[in-house]
Automatic annotation (TrEMBL):
Organism from which the protein derives: Trinickia violacea
The protein's name: Ohr family peroxiredoxin
Pfam families tied to this protein: OsmC
Gene Ontology BP terms: response to oxidative stress
Protein family membership: Belongs to the OsmC/Ohr family.
Length: 141
């Protein structure tokens, strides 16, 4: 895959789960520390493909984590979160994407959390669509 030389734009998300089957999603851009309602308004007023893609991927990925954890009989913490950043960049005059996924599972043993995230990455349709097409770095903490 082609490495991006210059990042032009980054779409960021922060996704959590609260209650039964409810996904909370905040989308932002670099340097934007606005509150979720302000972030949503900003995204609606200034949508970018990177923000929207990161948001959809993040919501799908956290749902895949729930399914993987259930299959592995792992109790997920109430403060589980997934942050995804999708960069639009250029190399040699051509446009490319790259992404970073940061998963936080406080209280879950690191190796167990990594196994759950690996299984989630294997089943998430967005991860499948990007696999082998863009650089994706996954961090589990």
């Amino acid at each position: 895959m082609t490495k991006i030389e210059t990042v032009l734009l980054t779409g960021k998300t922060h996704t959590t789960i609260s209650g039964r089957e409810r996904v909370n999603l905040a989308l932002s851009s670099p340097g934007n520390d606005a509150q979720p309602q302000q972030l949503f308004s900003d995204v609606v007023a200034h949508p970018t493909a990177e923000r929207l893609f990161a948001g959809a991927w993040s919501a799908c990925f956290i749902s895949a984590i729930e399914l993987a954890a259930k299959a592995q009989k792992v109790a997920l913490p109430s403060d589980l979160s997934v942050d995804i950043e999708v960069d639009l960049g250029m190399t040699g005059g051509a446009y490319f994407l790259q992404a970073r996924i940061d998963v936080s599972m406080p209280g879950v043993a690191h190796e167990v959390a990594k196994a759950v995230v690996h299984a989630a990455d294997e089943m998430c349709p967005y991860s499948k669509a990007t696999r082998g097409n863009i650089d994706v770095a996954i961090n589990v903490r």
